[in-house]
Design goal:
Elements lengths: L6 H5 L3 H11 L4 E2 L5 E3 L10 E4 L6 H13 L4 E4 L1 H6 L2 H5 L3 E4 L4 H7 L2 H12 L3 E5 L1 H6 L16 E2 L9 E8 L4 E7 L2 E2 L5 E5 L5 E8 L2 E6 L19 H18 L6
Parallel strand pairs: 3-4, 3-5, 5-6, 6-13
Antiparallel strand pairs: 1-2, 2-4, 7-10, 8-9, 8-11, 11-12, 12-13
């Protein structure tokens, strides 16, 4: 469980600090107890349940897309860049229930953080922090030579088969375990074969979304971008609304937060 400040500990703070924290609660951007920018729910009294990585290699537009989904679901979250993530120890990481690593360039993501940072993330997940990786974030969670976290116990992912046909982005029809057909935004995402339980499959039957345990932690990896906003769809034909597709992103976040894994099959 994430650490929190009990009422007794809060009462022991000097009144001037309490007043300052209450003043911060009315601002859009505050600092959480780890000194990271905090969004969503008001402070003081608890850590945000979600830590969103926005470091080097991540796509700023995907960070914004994930933030939009978190905001719509009313979830508090903190944000860390590469330097800030490098400074967090295991205990600080464990104060969050979920680490989200969005899309971008997984090589640059891995190279932007230290080997100590990836080891700390791995240990924090082993001890109970959950992890959600989207596209590059899924590659970063695998066994990669580019300073990955390796939450897949040695499994290394390849790109989805569309990449070999020269396709770099597309509306890809995936099917979840409930039989729903969702045309999701895909851009250079992985095929998750060889790891975890399948949550959704690409048209060729390979895993587009998968989930699995790592120690006491729960890991959800996605080769697609269910968080993709309407602007990403320009010039690409989609049959379903962006609202429907974004709802699937919310389901994955809820599952990764520990409210129950999505159906598998």
């Amino acid at each position: 469980m994430p650490a929190s400040f009990g009422s007794g500990q809060f009462r022991s703070l000097p009144k001037i600090i309490i007043f300052f924290c209450l003043a911060l609660a009315g601002c859009h951007d505050r600092l959480d107890w780890n000194g990271l920018p905090h969004h969503g729910a008001s402070l003081p009294g608890a850590f945000a349940p979600v830590l969103l990585f926005e470091g080097k290699g991540t796509s700023p537009r995907d960070v914004a897309a994930v933030e939009a989904v978190l905001d719509r679901r009313g979830l508090a979250y903190a944000i860390a860049d590469s330097d800030q993530l490098n400074r967090l120890d295991v205990a600080q990481l464990r104060s969050y229930r979920l680490l989200i690593v969005p899309g971008g360039n997984f090589i640059d993501i891995g190279n932007s953080v230290t080997t100590t940072a990836t080891a700390n993330i791995r240990q924090a997940v082993d001890e109970g922090m959950n992890y959600l990786g989207l596209c590059a974030g899924a590659f970063f969670a695998s066994d990669s030579v580019f300073n990955s976290v390796n939450l897949t116990s040695g499994v290394r992912f390849r790109f989805y088969s569309a990449e070999a046909r020269g396709v770099r982005k597309a509306a890809v029809l995936v099917t979840d375990a409930q039989g729903r057909a969702l045309d999701q935004y895909w851009e250079d995402g992985p095929d998750l074969s060889g790891w975890g339980d399948v949550v959704a499959r690409y048209p060729d039957g390979t895993p587009a979304v998968a989930q699995g345990a790592y120690g006491k932690g729960f890991v959800v990896l996605s080769g697609i971008h269910p968080e993709a906003p309407e602007a990403w769809r320009r010039g690409i034909p989609f049959r379903r609304s962006v609202r429907d597709d974004n709802a699937f992103a919310g389901e994955l976040i809820d599952a990764a937060l520990g409210s129950g894994p999505p159906p598998q099959g």
